[in-house]
């Protein structure tokens, strides 16, 4: 269940069924170090499903890109402890980025194995859809590993449709939501 009371835009408290309370908010530059430190909280399957390869750490370049999104073309949200940025453990990251020269955005979500199944991925996905609609985009899509049934089911439950990957990449399916603005 999410609540919203006089918080800045894109901020909300998310209360998981487990009792964990997290603050969903836009990422900040000072989240870089905690994000790199929290990377070990993400299991190998989650990392492989998101990065589509085995990655053991978040590179400084990726961290810089994630923590400094261009507000005109992308959004990066985190679900973190209700502590000041730079001190809070980050349990999930969700990002959407407009593909240059199109009216489409690509999404990616990474949720810690400790928070999976709590509804956090759904809430983050809803926020990415809201952002994409607010940008008057035609579609939002994400490339998902064929064996990542939870992500495919989550996306489908929100209206995303599976399509073959445009580059014919084996093992990937593209989940696409046509946005009716």
Automatic annotation (TrEMBL):
User: Per UniProt, which keywords does this protein have?
Assistant: Transferase
Please report the stretch or stretches of sequence annotated as the N-acetyltransferase domain. Answer: 22-180
Q: Which Gene3D superfamilies match?
A: 3.40.630.30
Give any Pfam family that matches.
Answer: Acetyltransf_1
Q: Which domain of life is it from?
A: Bacteria
Give the GO molecular function terms: acyltransferase activity, transferring groups other than amino-acyl groups
**Entry protein name:** N-acetyltransferase
**Whose protein is this, by species?**
Stenotrophomonas tumulicola
